[in-house]
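Continuing the series of single-chain predictions for the mutant panel. This is the parent chain; the variants come on the following pages.
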Amino acid sequence: MEFLRAFLCGGLLCAIGQVLIDKTQLTPARILTGYVVAGVALTALGVYGPVVEWGGAGATVPLLGFGYALANGVKKAVTEQGWLGVMTGGLSATAGGVAAAVVFALLMALLFRAGDKRH
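Parent structure:
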């Protein structure tokens, strides 16, 4: 049942993004940024936590989940370090994911040759 909830939650978030791409003049970059900001805002309002509990990885893997991780990192760091945590909390909470993305991007760049596709 956990896999089904993750699939439904992640699928719904992706479907909303696709509708925004298809039906609005927003660029994909603005939609992606909006998803991160929405994740932070919904976490700050206490709305996204229950979504994460229900949807699991379907809620934490998309970009809303990145915003969720940023907001939770800042919240934890502020309680532990005071106002300095505003600057350090989000970075430390998401450092593992960002580092993994950089490492895997480097590996793909080394394994595959980039270039124009020839038809």
